[in-house]
Amino acid sequence: MSKPQFVYVTYIETTPEKLWEALTSSDFTRQYWFGAEVRSDWKIGSPFALTLDGEVTDAGEILEADPPRRLAYSFKHLKYEELRGEPISRVVFTIEPFGSLVRLTVLHDGFVAGGKYLGAVSNGWPAILSGLKSLLERGQVLAIPRTALNKGFDAK
Amino acid sequence: MNLDQFKPLTVYTIYIASTPEKVWEALTSAEFSKQYFFGNAVEVEPRLGGAFILRTPDGAVHISGEVLACDPPHKLAVTFNVNWPELIEKLGPTLVTYDIEQVGDAVRLTMSEGHDRPLSDDILSGGRSGWPAILSSLKSLLETGKPLVVKMGPPQRMLDALKTMGIKTP
Known about the structure:
The complex is a heterodimer. By secondary structure, chain A is an alpha+beta fold. Helix content of chain A is 27%, strand content 36%. In chain A, strands 1-7-6-5-4-3-2 form a 7-stranded antiparallel beta sheet. In chain A, a hairpin with a 2-residue loop joins strand 3 and strand 4 (55-66). Chain B is globular and about 45 Å long. Chain B is an alpha+beta fold. In chain B, helix 1 crosses helix 2 and helix 4 packs antiparallel against helix 5. In chain B, strands 1, 2, 3, 4, 5, 6, 7 and 8 form an 8-stranded antiparallel beta sheet that branches. The interface between A and B is medium-sized, with 25 and 25 residues.
């Protein structure tokens, strides 16, 4: 059996620098991450938080920061009761120049087998990263309702 | 050949600012597919039992199969067999399913690559590296009118694994 993890690869017509900015700037994340804002000074060991409407929904610590190539933070969900008991997970963003494009690989791991969190994350990332790609390539995000994220995990 | 014998081993979901009809057309038309599928042309008879073919830019049949589910513009499932000697005997048939759903003002496209037996990550690495590039380019094409220029080498890890199994590759 493979270990429980989520991997997503997408190719974007942009530069590594712009992609780094899109991953680390609240002005960007608010647009494609369904209103969520990232908070950190992006230094290794510094706190990381994801906020939605002023409430911290996920929190962790910067594990790796090598702009504009690699970013990793720990990720602990705080909002939904059903997910709060799950262990601290890890998100790793790898940004690679690929000809005239950039390849972005998102690895999210550290889940318990059979937990609900992996399902939630697996539904969320494709929607978030599809919006990010649209934003960078055409200056506009996708009009997807937030409920689209809840397929497989019935978050109210 | 029926759908129940396949289990999805690779799944990729992407959201596209488009309509289900346009996504369906992009997935089933040779003109569209040449732009985002590494230059390959899709030819499909959109009915149950219809033929599915993927032609390389030189016109050779690279992949062939049969339509096992067809519900335009929501679902298409085709067997997707690479025409290399002994490949299907040793790895079994491959099923590719596209599910197309309207979500808000966008389309959720889910591609599943199914197999009738467990396969190693090495064998599956070919599809796992190819699909994200193909579908990223399809999204760009539908949203911006321009596909991505993806210059990707051959899937070496998969080719090595096939060779180890005694499957001849070009």
